[in-house]
Each structure stands twice: as C-alpha cells, then as structure tokens.
Amino acid sequence: MTTRYVESSRLPTAWGVFDIHGFEDPQANKEHVVLTMGDVSDGEPVLARIHSECLTGDALFSMRCDCGNQLEAALKAISEAGRGALFYLRQEGRGIGLLNKIKAYKLQDAGADTVEANEQLGFGADMRDYTILKPMLEHLKIQKVRLMTNNPRKVAALEAAGVEIVERIPLHTACNPHNEKYLQTKGAKLGHLFEDRE
C-alpha cells in the first residue's frame, strides 16, 4: 500500500471548521483527503462517512445521483455531533473515472441503468478499492466508527481494515425524477440497504 500522509490544515466550511488531512497514492497517481472535527483519536467510536468523489454531484449539483446530498448530509451530521471524520476518496464514477462516467451517462440516456452502462463500457459494476483507507485510519488512530452508509461493501471494507463498526447509520436523501432509477439500481443490483427509507 503506497498511500501516505502529506499535511493537515484548517478548513472552514458552511457547517463549521474542520481539519483537512491530505494523503497521496503515487502508485495510482491519486490524492485523497479526510475532513475531521474534534478529537477522533481518543478511542471512542467516530461518526464517519466514506465518500467517493463525484464531481457532477458534489460540485456541479447534478440530480442524476444522490452524492452531493449525501456529502452535505454527512458534513452537517458531523458538525452537529461536534466530532467525526469524512473520508473523501478520489474514485470518480465508482472507480471508472470522470470521462468514462460521462460515457456511462450517455448509455444511461439511451436506457441502460448504472450497472449496465459500466458493464457495456467493459468495467465492473463497482471498481472502487477501499484498501486505501487503512493507512488513513491508522494515521488518524481511528479504531471504531459509527458509519453513515447504505453500502454493505463499505462496512466490509472497514472491518477488513481492522475497524470495529459500532453502528451503521442509514444516509437517505431526497429522491427526484432524475435519480429514481439510479437509486433503484443501487438497491437491486449493488445491495445498498434502503429497507429503512420512509
């Protein structure tokens, strides 16, 4: 594993002042960050979110997915708790990259769902690699988390990294006509847990 810590600084946001910790993976030519608030190294369970980069949803306010809404909800929850960590991983498009994601969008425009579109492009349904989390977790001394996720793969990845999942907290945001099929596919084909959605 080549992921290594680089530097930290303060990061004021709309939800409060976080600390931003930078990590690099030269082998994959990727840079990742973790936003923390409060003391996350005291051994107590940390409210945490593993968030994969989504330029279209996080920065361009796309309604095709729920990524931007989940990012905001997680930062707000951490701020309200006064303590937590958000891992922002540069794994755009479930690991296929931004331009391939745009190609997948074009296939979705023609009727494919998100999984079918990835597979038509020759990729797996979800190419993300969560092993990159281990050095970040070790650097921040996080051993137990209350994980905000609907994705059982993230639970399994943290457990594989030796982190205890004290609680899984569902993270549901509003559905809209543009992301309804996307959310249905997450549940039906990727095993995301939506049984507690109202």
Automatic annotation (TrEMBL):
Residues binding GTP, per UniProt: 49-53, 70, 92-94, 114, 149, 154
Cofactor(s) the record lists: Zn(2+)
Positions annotated to bind Zn(2+): 54, 65, 67
Superkingdom of the source species: Bacteria
InterPro entries, sorted: GTP_cyclohydro_II, RibA, RibA-like_sf
Any one Gene Ontology BP term: riboflavin biosynthetic process
EC class of the enzyme, as a word: hydrolase
Catalytic activity, EC: 3.5.4.25
GTP cyclohydrolase II domain segment(s): 6-170
Molecular function via GO: GTP binding; GTP cyclohydrolase II activity; zinc ion binding
Reaction equation(s) it catalyzes: GTP + 4 H2O = 2,5-diamino-6-hydroxy-4-(5-phosphoribosylamino)-pyrimidine + formate + 2 phosphate + 3 H(+)
Keywords annotated in UniProt: GTP-binding, Hydrolase, Metal-binding, Nucleotide-binding, Riboflavin biosynthesis, Zinc
GO cellular component: cytosol
Active site: residue positions: 126, 128
Note on how the cofactor is bound: Binds 1 zinc ion per subunit.
Biological or metabolic pathway of the protein: Cofactor biosynthesis; riboflavin biosynthesis; 5-amino-6-(D-ribitylamino)uracil from GTP: step 1/4
UniProt-listed Pfam families: GTP_cyclohydro2
Protein family: Belongs to the GTP cyclohydrolase II family.
Function as written in the Swiss-Prot or TrEMBL entry: Catalyzes the conversion of GTP to 2,5-diamino-6-ribosylamino-4(3H)-pyrimidinone 5'-phosphate (DARP), formate and pyrophosphate.
Annotated NCBIfam families: PRK00393.1, ribA
Name of the protein in question: GTP cyclohydrolase-2
Biological source species: Parahaliea mediterranea
Gene name, Swiss-Prot/TrEMBL: ribA
